[in-house]
Specification:
Number of domains: 2
Distance between the termini: 39 Å
Number of strands: 16
Structural class: alpha/beta
Radius of gyration: 23 Å
CATH superfamily of the largest domain: Luciferase-like domain
CATH architecture of the largest domain: Alpha-Beta Barrel
Number of helices: 15
Strand content: 15-25%
Shape: globular
CATH topology of the largest domain: TIM Barrel
CATH class of the largest domain: Alpha Beta
Largest sheet: 8 strands, parallel, barrel
Strand order of the largest sheet: 1-2-5-6-11-12-13-16
């Protein structure tokens, strides 16, 4: 008997906290005006995407005292944007990254519970940690936490937030459209938590929301991050959008679920993926080359190299050869400075591999970064991209993809109009939303189905 086709999950990332965006393109729009967010969200909803995703930028990215030349300077508060989008969408999930290192459980729980009420059950939280001392300078605690302590705090943070959500039991309230919501039990909202990182007690003042709890996302690729996702998350973002790497990540994370008493379908794996779409594959390949040249300037190429070399490389010519010096070991200099740093587990091996690639292909520093960096995952005609996405999902390289266009806000339009209909024709993507909440879109159970049904009715 043939294996039933998996249904594909699609989401859209408003690309403000990365260097994917080509803001210098004449077709690019604002990253701070609400009209850009609204256009992007309406396009995603028109295409029946699961959700829109906003990353969080808690500081301007700089290195060596300068802002990255391709980074987006300025980003409204995540909750403010998502709350506003709740008013101009009806079905689209609203997902935001909120840091567990520099926030407090009570505040975050109130914000997400509030968003879930305002949106009718469409909120989701991407739980992240931060080790960056530069970001820490913006907060009272300052500094950074060692990796093991970051995840310890994140685990207790999420557990505490869930205690606050669950302090309102489904049986303690009724929803009356005419008269509003009334308490039935004086204990509603009461909580007490005492742990290593948090010692709080009181009364949570937001009643249980339509989803019971927001959907929980996690984005860590380390062993600790994968374990955290397997134990606590509903979905995990992945940076592995290729077949071999994607399948390895998929199998590893899914296989961790059983030790927490969870089924494989209780955690979705959603790689991020960029794309370049054109009428033909050949045209798309040419356009992709042009986009990458715009995404990786000489200055950006040097900054990428500094993430590996862990030292100032500003004196090097980005159109010249790679440095013949070795990376600096340890977590200091660039890695503990004011940088957006990608952590390489073995910078010496990476440097050696890159030198060999550059020598074999006669690549400059900039050429190397273009060829080895975050190249477009899907390049081709609508038919090619639809086929590629479906093949990867059916072959368990992911449960779907979070699409990151290089143009804002209109970069998703062609995909919605030309690729999504092909996936629908193949019977692997919805033609209409199945239910009112994000958990319905993702095929996830609700923590309190009785309460959800009562409020949704």
């Amino acid at each position: 008997m043939p294996k039933p086709l998996k249904q594909i999950h699609l989401a859209a990332h408003f690309p403000g906290v990365n260097n994917t965006t080509v803001w210098s393109d004449p077709a690019a729009g604002s990253h701070i005006e609400f009209s850009s967010f609204a256009h992007f969200a309406r396009t995603a909803e028109r295409a029946e995407f699961d959700f829109l995703f906003l990353a969080e930028g808690l500081r301007l990215r700089e290195q060596g005292g300068r802002i990255y030349d391709l980074d987006v300077v300025g980003r409204p508060d995540t909750f403010t944007v998502l709350a506003a989008l709740a008013a101009v969408t009806e079905h689209l999930g609203l997902t935001g990254t909120i840091n567990s290192t520099f926030n407090e459980p009570y505040e975050v729980a109130r914000q997400f519970a509030g968003l879930d009420h305002l949106s009718g059950g469409r909120s989701a939280w991407n739980v992240v940690t931060s080790w960056d001392a530069f970001t820490g300078e913006n907060f009272r605690r300052g500094g950074f936490l060692p990796q093991e302590e970051r995840y310890s705090r994140a685990e207790e943070f999420l557990a505490t937030v869930n205690e606050l959500f669950d302090s309102w039991d489904g049986d303690e309230i009724v929803a009356d459209q005419a008269a509003g919501v009334f308490l039935r039990d004086a204990k509603a909202g009461s909580f007490v938590h005492s742990g290593q990182h948090f010692d709080i007690h009181g009364r949570f003042n937001v009643p249980r929301s339509p989803q019971g709890r927001p959907v929980i996302f996690q984005a860590g690729d380390s062993d600790e991050g994968r374990e955290f996702a397997a134990s606590s998350a509903d979905a995990i973002f992945s940076r592995y959008a290729t077949r071999t790497e994607g399948q390895a990540f998929y199998a590893d994370v899914k296989n961790r679920l059983a030790r927490y008493g969870r089924r494989r379908d209780e955690l979705l794996i959603l790689p991020a993926a960029t794309f370049v779409l054109a009428d033909t594959d050949a045209e798309a390949r040419e356009l992709a080359k042009e986009v990458r040249r715009k995404q990786v300037s000489g200055a950006t190429a040097l900054k990428h190299l500094e993430w590996v070399w862990n030292r100032d490389l500003s004196a090097y010519d980005p159109d010249g050869p790679l440095p013949d010096i070795d990376p600096l070991p340890g977590e200091h200099t660039v890695a503990r400075g004011r940088a957006q740093v990608r952590m390489y587990r073995d910078p010496f091996a990476t440097a050696r591999e890159w030198r060999e690639l550059a020598a074999a292909n006669n690549w400059s520093i900039r050429d190397l970064v273009i060829e080895t960096g975050n190249r477009q995952n899907f390049i081709g005609s609508p038919q090619t991209i639809a086929r590629t996405i479906n093949d990867l999902v059916q072959e368990d390289a992911g449960d779907g993809f979070i699409l990151v266009p290089h143009l804002t806000p209109g970069g998703l339009d062609d995909f919605a109009d030309r690729v999504v209909p092909l996936l629908q024709e193949q019977g692997v993507f919805r033609t209409e939303y199945e239910g009112p909440t994000l958990r319905h879109h993702l095929g996830l159970t609700h923590p309190d189905r009785a309460h959800t049904a009562r409020v949704a009715s």
